[in-house]
Specification:
Rossmann fold; 5-stranded parallel β-sheet; two-stranded antiparallel ribbon; 8 helices; globular
Length: about 230
């Protein structure tokens, strides 16, 4: 597998330029992890979240209409599970650790926490799935949940250590690459077969219907590239 990682070190924020970069890159599989950076920066309110995710996915789909696309919600992070951001390093902590300036009471006014985001992401994927059968959703708490924190705590309350990363990777592989999963060989073969057939736009063009020029399609060589924006 040839991996292209578009994680932006705390700044994966559903930016349109990131969606355009994914749109233009050849890929057989795409995963987008959304949420933790939005909370850490206190970037938006709940009213804007679903709209921003729809717009991001719309841009990706312009270049990859049939590529298996997996949307992943955040893993468990107790610091902002039930409180909004913004977060910052705690200057009084004896070891590197984060703190949040957010007030849980502000969640009622639309500020985001990790308890809120999975519901909205799941709803977006469900709304789109009828017309997009290769769109998938994975709850990040199935990769690292509240019970895992007792055995493998997040050292700084936000980021897994090496053991936590290994656990997340193993669970992701079991789910994503399982038979019928979004990254399974069969799903990828179906994508390549479907991509080789005339697209909806090509059929429409043949019928004389005007379409917007499409961006670069998925990888025809089957190199197994995975475009990933892991921690939006």
């Amino acid at each position: 597998m040839e991996l292209i990682n578009l994680g932006l070190n705390g700044n994966a924020l559903l930016d349109p330029f990131t969606a355009r970069a994914i749109r233009a890159a050849p890929a057989d599989l795409i995963s987008v992890k959304v949420g933790i950076n939005l909370v850490n920066t206190d970037l938006m309110r709940r009213r804007a979240l679903a709209t921003a995710v729809h717009g991001f996915l719309d841009s990706v789909r312009e270049g990859h209409p049939d590529t298996p696309l997996l949307v992943v919600s955040p893993i468990h992070s107790p610091l902002v599970e039930d409180a909004p951001g913004p977060t910052a390093p705690d200057p009084d902590a004896p070891v590197p650790r984060f703190m949040t300036f957010g007030d849980p009471a502000d969640l009622a006014a639309g500020r985001l926490s990790l308890r809120v985001i999975p519901d909205d992401l799941s709803r977006v994927v469900t709304e789109r799935a009828a017309a997009d059968p290769r769109l998938y959703y994975l709850d990040g708490r199935d990769l690292y949940g509240e019970r895992d924190f007792a055995d493998l705590p997040l050292p700084d309350l936000l980021h897994p250590d090496a053991g936590g990363h290994a656990l997340v990777g193993e669970r992701f592989a079991r789910v994503a690459f399982a038979a019928g999963g979004p990254c399974s060989p069969r799903t990828s073969r179906l994508h390549r077969h479907h991509a080789s057939a005339p697209s909806h736009r090509a059929r429409a063009a043949a019928q004389g219907v005007r379409q917007r020029p499409r961006a670069l399609r998925g990888n025809r060589k089957g190199r197994g590239a995975l475009v990933k924006n892991p921690r939006a």
